[in-house]
Amino acid sequence: MSNSGEIWVIGEQRRGRLEEVSLELLSKGTALSQKMGVTLSAVLLGDEVEEVAREFVFHGAEKIYLLEDVRFRYYQSEAYTRLLAGVIKEHGPQIILIGATEIGKELAPKVAAKLGTGLTAHCIDLYVGEVDAVTHLIHVVPGWGGNLVMHIICPQRRPQVVTVKPGVLPKPVRDENKKGKIIRVKSDVRDQDFSRIETVEEVEEPPKGKALESADVVVCGGWGMNALGDFSKVQELADILGGAVAGTRPAMDKGWVDEARMVGQSGKTVSPGLFVSLGASGAMHYTTGFMGSKVVLAVDENPQAPIFQMADIGVVGDLCEVLPCLIEELKKDRGG
User: How many Cβ atoms sit within 10 Å of the Cβ of residue 50?
Assistant: First the structure.
């Protein structure tokens, strides 16, 4: 792998606020750039977002390529794709990191197609390693229904484009003493970029209950909660711990949680201080959703369940007995 060409993080902002995944990508970008001896840069499109761009500097970016235009107030698919591809061709970065948000999942393949390069989607980790004595960026992705972890390389095309799920990586420490250069890029905006589809308004629906991404405690129920008949005990435990409620795909299919609260490969990725797994066996497509948690407590009646291989604290037992007991003891500990 070449030691020339920058690593770029494509920033995402909404209403003048950076999405958390953009900062998380800087954390991994910093580690990779130091390993490879190259510059870490960021790209940001928006309207009057220079102050937002400075947050990239405070979180580790050495350069920020800034494209500002009043028409960039909201995400515009055609304009963003064409302009990003043009800036990438001009400056020649070797790695492009994009958050696997709803916007990123649309933007990344379009940019990669315009550049005629490879894309690895929904990565859970990235590292520099050797394959057949050649150094590569290794993209780590859960695959085959979550039963395997795949290690992927892009040996021929540059830049290589990867998307990373929100919540997988830690955020870097913010430091206002860090220095970086903001480079204003002339936005070659064309009317035809907005001729077919134009975003006229963006409505953000607030999450119901405590947000998963910011919760320090997440209590997640699986199919095993079927023995208790509903999710009321999951909610009760989460309330006692001051945490957020989540569920597996079977729990979502059952109607106990909505899609926004599903944890796993096809749902949210969280990294709380404490993750409590209740009645979920621990298939990889589920555990990839909380691998970054500091402490994992798991309860399942099957002593051979895969969940116990990654749990810091494991309780083998019937949820109908264990969960009410756990709730009662916690209530006593907190004075009722």
Answer: 13
CA 224/CA 202 separation, integer angstroms: 38
Q: What are phi and psi of 239, to 5 degrees?
A: -65, -40
* Phi-psi map region of 272: left, alpha, beta (phi>0 left; psi -120 to 50 alpha): beta
Backbone φ, ψ for residue 232 (5° rounding): -60, -35
pLDDT in tens, 28-44: 999 999 999 999 999 99
8 A C-beta contact, residue 240 and residue 334: yes
188 contacts 78 by C-beta, under 8 angstroms: no
Q: Is the peptide bond before 272 cis (omega within 30 degrees of 0)?
A: no
Angstrom distance (rounded) from CA 83 to CA 99: 18
Q: What is the mean pLDDT of residues 191-210?
A: 70
Q: Cite the DSSP H helix spans in the chain.
A: 20-36, 50-58, 77-91, 102-115, 232-241, 249-254, 284-287, 307-310, 319-333
Helix (H, G, I), strand (E, B) or coil at 313: strand
pTM of the predicted protein model? 0.78
Strands (DSSP E) along the chain, which ranges?
A: 7-10, 13-14, 17-18, 40-46, 63-68, 95-99, 119-123, 125-131, 134-143, 148-152, 160-164, 181-184, 217-221, 244-247, 274-278, 295-300, 313-316
Q: Which amino acid is at 54?
A: R
- Which residues, 6 or more positions from 307, have their beta carbon under 8 angstroms from its beta carbon? 277, 280, 281, 282, 287, 298, 300, 314
Looking at residues 95-124, what average pLDDT do you find? 92
Residue matched to tokens 């003048």: 16
**Ordered domains of the chain (ranges, CATH):** 7-194 (3.40.50.620), 217-333 (3.40.50.1220)
- Rounded Cα gap, residues 21 and 19, in angstroms: 5
